[in-house]
Amino acid sequence: MSFNQKIIYTSLIILTLIFGSTAWYYKKTHPQYIPLPPKPELTLTIIPGWNLRQVAEYLVKQGIASSTDDVYKLTGKPAADYRRTGDLLPRMSTASIVSYRPDYVSYEGYLAPETYRVFKNASILDVLRKLIEQRDREITAQMWQDIEKSGRSPYEIIIMASILEKEVQSADDKAKVADILWKRFDKNWALQVDSSVHYAVDKTGDVFTTGKERGFDSLWNTYKYPGLPLGPIANPGLASIKAAIYPEKNAYWYFLTGKDGTVYYAKSLEEHNYNKKRL
């Protein structure tokens, strides 16, 4: 081997050692990035018309809450007037829509029905805030303007929407019934909707109410007290909110919903009583 070949060979060995040690040092000081496994997620579906009781029970079933009382600590209890106890509920969100909610009632009406993806270890507050913020996103700038033009408060709109959600099914019927109920509200009549009584007495599975139930003393009982109930009676879907904002003008003053969902309208009490007999 010539002298020049020895030089080249030695140089190659030295360079190999340098590159090798450099690579070893880099690996030691720059460990390979291993991505963390994705957090387990959960799909939650809130059904239009569910009330706080149903939402709380569902969150317990899905493992988000240990008990319904844990949910109520944040949302407040259904059909509770907190003016009597002086309790104040935590402010769960800075969303515009909840800024109109009085402090003395629950978050009923503000938990938007929708399908959500949440982390499996999400807190109750995380989930409830997500529902409230979805409700806020549903109200467009145009809807806010039209609410203001209507002369109704955003809170009154949510209450009316919750009644429409429970009373009738189709968008057309919701808009017609909204006009009937707003007319009765403006005259300070009793709205006399059975769904408000169902909510007050915690009754499900029936369209009608008994005389005893209609006599139940609650500010949610629209047979006993005129005007709107103290608060919403359910969490309405967007179609019901739109119907409350955009009622369809008509000449009716009464309506009745049959067990099959058919709505019977009447212009007079006599005609309304006739519809009752038919059912």
Q: Count of DSSP E strands?
A: 4
Main sheet properties: 2 strands, antiparallel
Question: In angstroms, what separates the terminal alpha carbons?
Answer: 113 Å
For the biggest β-sheet, the strand order reads 1-2
What radius of gyration results from the CA coordinates? 30 Å
Structure annotation, total helices: 11
| Helical residue percent band | 40-55%
Q: Give the SSE string.
A: HEHHEHHHHHHHEEH
Instruction: Give the oligomeric state.
Output: single chain
What's the mean pLDDT score? 89
Low-confidence residue ranges: none
Helix and strand content put the structural class at mainly alpha
- The backbone outline, from C-alpha atoms, is elongated
Strand content: 5-15%
